[in-house]
């Protein structure tokens, strides 16, 4: 069973938003997958944020991971509220949960122990704006590192500063790093001038220190040519240690050491940026190690060599296993095929199933804000999910189908940009990767910006404009009623589902929709009628969550009834009467016939029930991958 090694939660009082929000947003940016560029080899922790409106308490936190690390921002607003302090006390009692308090002011220390707190006041006078958020992030990410391994015997991060003593700028930078680490952090470092004791073997002391450290390469002019510098790099690679490079070359370097490659690099600006950079890579590296162990223990792959970073030729030279597994995101084929003849993939790859040529319809749209707040999520969760799914589908030579308008900066654009990137890196001939369906009258827009945007993506996408159904009467200039829009949307959805092989649904409006019923609900009912495989992702709220809730409990949520929908919209009541006048039934009772087996998706009841609730994107992809292997096994 998939079990995320760690999830990160942030909690704060709404009155502290002005102080807390910039820090939380900065941490989310650094700790989670970049929704605007999911191809970056960035951190990808599950992150959830909880606050409240006015004096209400936040929802219950998510505790579905193996370990849950909570950062609670505490100030006078929380200390003055018995309800809030009791809420935090209950959070602390939950199994597998560790709470790290961030004291926003002195009053917080009346409630929490100073030894168990990050003190915001220690940094507010020294740092401002983005640097303050960065400094707080360093403290937060160090706590993540310490508690990722064991809640009791947590570790202090060790950094090995590798530098050439023949370069003044390199020595100066290395000393600045050491001074900052010693004076301004709780971390330890190795600096050979200070840290090798009399009588120690120089070689052994350095190697033993590297084996338990993150290597920071201070890349100055002569670094690549120095014997000991080369040896330190080789030692770190042979012992599978995190490595980052700080580039401080002044002028030119006539030859770089060939093994100095395939790790993150930063241009030196200040010690705080370097420390942040090293922490991010260390935490990413160790989290990947936990993930790989979890996948191995659950037999997602057996006879495979795993790496915590994308491997290079040096790392691959002695691999005996027939298969290679590395962290997300997947390499492009033109790169991986030059590295090795062995199969290379990520744990989340769809490559173990035969989906080439299959047609995947995805319906992923925003959930209500209330759902997002309850689940500790925001729009970036669904944005990332849409991009990851698009990447997995397209890279495995399948076709992605999406129904929606063509607004720049919408979900549609994210999908098309993914297709363009994949197409540009594909060694095979160019072909259509996406089909975009639009219902009448959306395609009638004559916006020059829209036309330009459509033309730019025509090489990777086929645009299918669904016209007015033949039995719907409309004369130019007439009002486009809810009935007409509903019939057009239904026609588009039927056309998509007719030719699709798999449907994937997440999020979706529960009210204030256009059509005869909420879009995802109608799509699910149509797909079930045609016995199409459906993957329902309920952990992101919206209509998908309501359908999942009914399937798992057989208790009908009120949002799946026409009476509830009528109570929310007089306009919808009018639309329903127009349907009735045309003798067309809007039949919500079909929901009652739905069962888990009707999803026909290759997953067991237990696996589907997990898919109905998990908010972890990696687990979603893993479960879909399992279902696809059963539906379309390798031949």
Brief digest:
The chain is α/β, with parallel strands linked by helices.
Count of extended strands? 19
Structural class: alpha/beta
The termini sit apart by: 26 Å
User: What is the percent of helical residues?
Assistant: 40-55%
| Radius of gyration over all CA atoms, rounded | 27 Å
The main β sheet shows up as: 6 strands, parallel
Mean pLDDT: 88
Shape: globular
Q: Kindly estimate the percentage of residues that lie in beta strands according to DSSP.
A: 5-15%
| Poorly predicted ranges | 193-201
Give me the side-by-side strand order of the main sheet. Answer: 17-16-15-14-18-19
How many separate helices? 23
Question: What features would you describe in this structure?
Answer:
The chain is α/β, with parallel strands linked by helices. It has 23 helices and 19 strands. Helix 1 packs across helix 5 and helix 5 (129-149) runs parallel beside helix 10.
Keywords:
635 residues, 23 helices, alpha/beta, 14% strand
Task: Walk me through the topology.
Blueprint: E1 6-11, H1 17-31, E2 47-50, E3 67-74, H2 76-79, H3 82-93, E4 97-103, E5 117-119, H4 121-124, H5 129-149, E6 158-162, H6 168-184, E7 188-190, H7 192-195, H8 202-210, E8 214-219, H9 227-238, E9 243-247, E10 265-267, H10 271-297, E11 305-306, H11 313-316, E12 324-325, H12 333-339, E13 344-345, E14 359-365, H13 369-375, H14 379-395, E15 399-403, H15 411-425, E16 434-439, H16 448-456, E17 461-466, H17 482-499, E18 502-507, H18 519-529, E19 534-537, H19 542-553, H20 562-568, H21 570-581, H22 605-611, H23 617-631
Parallel strand pairs: 1-2, 1-3, 3-4, 4-5, 6-7, 6-8, 8-9, 9-10, 11-12, 12-13, 14-15, 14-18, 15-16, 16-17, 18-19
């Amino acid at each position: 069973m998939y079990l995320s090694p760690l999830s990160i939660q942030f909690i704060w009082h709404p009155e502290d938003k002005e102080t807390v929000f910039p820090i939380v947003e900065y941490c989310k940016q650094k700790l989670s997958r970049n929704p605007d560029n999911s191809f970056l080899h960035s951190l990808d922790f599950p992150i959830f944020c909880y606050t409240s409106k006015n004096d209400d308490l936040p929802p219950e936190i998510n505790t579905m991971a193996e370990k849950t690390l909570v950062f609670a921002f505490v100030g006078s607003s929380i200390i003055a509220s018995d309800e809030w302090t009791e809420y935090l006390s209950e959070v602390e009692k939950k199994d597998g949960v560790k709470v790290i308090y961030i004291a926003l002011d002195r009053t917080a220390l009346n409630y929490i122990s100073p030894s168990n707190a990050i003190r915001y006041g220690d940094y507010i006078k020294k740092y401002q704006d983005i640097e303050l958020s960065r400094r707080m992030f360093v403290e937060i990410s160090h706590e993540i590192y310490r508690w990722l391994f064991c809640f009791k015997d947590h570790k202090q991060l060790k950094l090995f500063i590798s530098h050439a003593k023949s370069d003044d700028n390199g020595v100066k930078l290395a000393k600045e790093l050491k001074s900052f680490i010693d004076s301004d952090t709780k971390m330890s470092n190795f600096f050979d001038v200070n840290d090798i004791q009399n009588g120690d073997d120089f070689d052994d002391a350095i190697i033993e220190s590297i084996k338990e450290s993150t290597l920071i390469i201070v890349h100055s002019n002569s670094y690549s040519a120095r014997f000991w510098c080369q040896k330190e790099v080789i030692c770190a690679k042979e012992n599978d240690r995190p490595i980052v490079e700080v580039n401080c070359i002044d002028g030119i370097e006539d030859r770089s050491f060939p093994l100095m490659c395939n790790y993150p690099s930063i241009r030196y600006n200040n010690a705080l940026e370097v420390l942040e950079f090293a922490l991010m890579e260390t935490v990413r590296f160790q989290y990947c190690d936990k993930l790989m162990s979890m996948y191995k223990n659950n037999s997602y792959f057996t006879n495979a060599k795993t790496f915590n970073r994308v491997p290079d030729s040096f790392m691959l030279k002695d691999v005996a296993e027939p298969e290679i597994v590395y962290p997300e995101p997947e390499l492009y084929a033109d790169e991986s095929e030059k590295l090795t003849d062995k199969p290379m993939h990520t744990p989340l790859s769809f490559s173990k199933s035969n989906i080439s040529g299959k047609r995947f319809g995805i319906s992923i749209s925003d959930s209500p804000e209330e759902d997002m707040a309850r689940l500790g999520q925001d729009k970036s969760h669904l944005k990332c999910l849409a991009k990851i799914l698009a990447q997995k589908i397209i890279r495995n030579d399948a076709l992605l189908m999406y129904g929606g308008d063509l607004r720049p900066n919408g979900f549609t654009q994210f999908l098309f940009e993914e297709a363009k990137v994949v197409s540009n890196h594909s060694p095979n001939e160019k072909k259509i990767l996406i089909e975009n369906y639009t219902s009448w009258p959306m395609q009638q827009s004559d916006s020059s910006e829209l036309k330009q945007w459509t033309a730019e993506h025509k090489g990777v996408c086929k645009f299918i404009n669904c016209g007015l159904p033949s039995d719907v009467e409309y004369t130019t200039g007439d009002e486009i009623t809810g009935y007409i829009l509903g019939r057009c949307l239904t026609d588009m959805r039927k056309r998509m589902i007719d030719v699709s092989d798999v449907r994937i649904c997440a999020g979706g409006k529960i009210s204030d929709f256009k059509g005869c019923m909420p879009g995802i609900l109608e799509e699910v009912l149509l797909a079930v009628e045609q016995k199409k495989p459906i993957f329902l992702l309920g952990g992101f709220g919206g209509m998908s969550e309501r359908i999942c809730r009914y399937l798992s409990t057989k208790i009908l949520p009120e949002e799946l009834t026409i009476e509830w929908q009528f109570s929310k919209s007089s306009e919808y009541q009018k639309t329903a009467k127009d349907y009735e006048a045309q003798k067309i039934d809007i039949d919500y009772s079909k929901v009652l016939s739905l069962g888990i087996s009707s999803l026909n998706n290759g997953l067991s009841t237990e696996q589907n029930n997990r898919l109905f609730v998990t908010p972890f994107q990696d687990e979603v992809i893993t479960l879909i991958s399992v279902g696809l292997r059963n539906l379309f096994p390798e031949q």
